[in-house]
Write a structure and sequence with these properties.
Number of helices: 7
Oligomer: single chain
CATH topology: Rossmann fold
Helix content: 25-40%
Order of helices and strands: EEEHEHEEHHEEHEHHE
Radius of gyration: 17 Å
Strand content: 15-25%
Distance between the termini: 17 Å
Number of strands: 10
Number of domains: 1
CATH architecture: 3-Layer(aba) Sandwich
Shape: globular
CATH superfamily: Alpha/Beta hydrolase fold, catalytic domain
């Protein structure tokens, strides 16, 4: 694992995990924490699990509340994706790029996938993105209606800009949504609503509902000793592998 700066601040750093052999694709993983907490070092287990499956994995930190409010943390994530693109030098084999996020990180990643302004403003091309995996993400809630999130999203002239379900358009990247049916933190209806919106717009989207699983347990499947607990990792890798196949076009370039 190597660490790099992708911006000027102390939370503008990322960790890079390389597979042992040739990379099949590139994954940017965005962790959750209610837009208030989290650090990249806690998610090495997930990055190492995906690297072992042949993927180059980037786990960035991003600024959080109260240091910043929406949309600053989304802009940070876009800068991290742009950093990934800046490492492409035009040589070697093209690699597809994927976003994966859990909880608040899934919300941020979904906004990057659905609102092209963030990547464009960061100097990255929206067409970089091959697919998105959203795990237990708050995809349809209005953050201005809840006491716990209202300060983080205050001052928005258009609250719907913070709601992925309202930003779906034809031609969006393929999506895999994973959600436990016993999630008491972010209700399953969030993923169900985004699934319906994606399909109504003619996009590829699927939802894996994990029976008896709560908010955090989908991540446990990425632990080597706990892969049996649910199918989140297995379904994620299946999705990545399918879209990484040579028949699919790709936009990132392999590093020598």
């Amino acid at each position: 694992m190597q660490s790099f700066a992708y911006g000027p601040g102390p939370r503008h750093r990322l960790d890079l995990y390389e597979p042992r052999g040739k990379a099949r694709g590139v994954v940017v993983y965005l962790y959750g924490g209610g837009w208030r907490s989290g650090r990249r070092g806690l998610y090495g287990f997930l990055a190492r699990a995906l690297a072992a499956r042949g993927y180059r994995v980037i786990v960035p930190d991003y600024r959080i509340f109260p240091e910043v409010r929406f949309p600053a943390f989304v802009e940070d994530a876009a800068q991290a994706v742009a950093w990934v693109g800046s490492r492409a030098d035009g040589a070697g084999e093209a690699l597809p790029l994927f976003l994966i996020g859990h909880s608040a990180g899934a919300h941020i990643a979904a906004l990057l996938a659905l609102d092209a302004r963030y990547l464009l403003d960061a100097g990255a091309a929206p067409q970089l993105l091959k697919g998105f995996v959203g795990i237990a993400g708050p995809m349809s809630f209005d953050p201005t209606e809840w006491d716990s999130t209202r300060p983080i999203f205050s001052g928005l002239p258009d609250p719907e800009r913070a709601r992925p379900v309202k930003l779906v358009r034809p031609g969006a990247p393929a999506m895999l949504l994973i959600h436990g049916n016993r999630d008491k933190t972010v209700g399953l209806h969030n993923s169900e609503h985004l699934l319906a919106a994606m399909r109504a717009a003619g996009n590829e989207a699927n939802l894996i509902t994990l029976s008896g699983v709560g908010h955090v347990m989908p991540l446990a499947s990425f632990l080597w000793a706990a892969g049996w607990v649910n199918s989140a990792m297995r379904e994620t890798v299946r999705f990545l592998d399918r879209l990484s196949a040579p028949a699919h076009s790709a936009y990132l370039t392999e590093q020598p």
